[in-house]
Amino acid sequence: MDVFWSTVYPVEVYADYHMLYKEPRPLIHDLVPSRGPDNPHDFFACPAFHLHMANTFVVRSIVDANVGIHLEGFSALDDKSSLTAQLFSYMHPTRKGFRTILFDHRMLFFCAKPLVLATYPAFMHRSEVQTKLHYVPAAYDISKWLRPLQGTFEVSEDTRSISIREEDPLYYIKFETTEKVRLRRFQMVPELHAITHGCVHYKLFRQRSTLERVYAAFTGSHLDRRVLKLITENLLD
After folding, report:
1. Per-residue pLDDT reduced to its tens digit, 117-171
2. Rounded-to-integer distance, Cα 84 and Cα 68, Å
3. 30 Cβ partners below 8 Å, 6+ apart?
4. How confident is the model at residue 32 (pLDDT cuts 50, 70, 90)?
5. pLDDT (0 to 100) of residue 100
6. DSSP string, the chain
């Protein structure tokens, strides 16, 4: 099954970010090099483990960021982070004792067939992303909605800094299918960006919409067919 992916930024800065993004690697391929000596309880040989890890990919940071966390915002803790500290912003908090952070890392996925994409914390890896932040997961059908994934995290109110390194795992994406998934990259074009923008802003006009309602709005406007046409015209592989 082909799953199409790209990054999505406004046209004027898209070229600045496009080359920074790499195709996500399968999680199992990422873990196998750390496999220890043979033992009878090796979970890498467990079929239940493989079933859970099937079609699961690792999304990684494209930048270094050493950032101070303050009530009023974020600050660079070294010269190298003077730009990347600007990638952090606050969202309205959900839970008491936590702040909700948006790390501006944008990936976009689409499929011609019904396919649920689910995201998970990067629980098989360990960096400050895992020890200081709490990833906020999500799931939706990427054949019926064109919304970018971003790094949404909770952080406890007493956390004062976060250090993220290029290639640190941010979260996992799992495609809920038994078919083998092939990722195919496409070039973002202004019309696709505009459709994505419309999906992001839809709930400003239709607040508290269910997934079923947004799917109906998207497919009812025939945007699924238009998006697929634009993607196939701009494939990079």
Report:
1. 999 999 999 999 999 999 999 999 999 999 999 899 999 999 999 999 999 999 9
2. 12
3. 58
4. confident
5. 98
6. -EEEEE----HHHHHHHHTT--PPEEHHHHHGGG--S--TT-GGG-HHHHHHHTTEEEEE-SS-EEEEEETTEEEESSGGGTTGGGGEEEE---STTEEEEEEEEEEEEE-SS--EEEEEE-TT--SHHHHHEEE---EEETTS----EEEEEEEETT--EEEE-TT-EEEEEEE--SSPPEEEEB---HHHHHHHHHHHHHHHHSTT--HHHHHHHHHHTTHHHHHHHHHHHTB--
Query: How far apart are alpha carbons 19 and 7 in whole angstroms?
Result: 10
* Sequence letter at residue 112: A
Q: How many CA atoms lie within 13 A of 160 on its CB side?
A: 1
Give the SS3 label for residue 149.
strand
Q: What is the pTM of this model?
A: 0.93
Q: Which two tokens stand for residue 33?
A: 């090099």
Residues contacting 17, CB < 8 A, separation 6+? 7, 9, 62, 106
Coil, helix or strand at residue 24: coil
Nearest-CA neighbor of 76 among 166, 161, 165, 167? 161
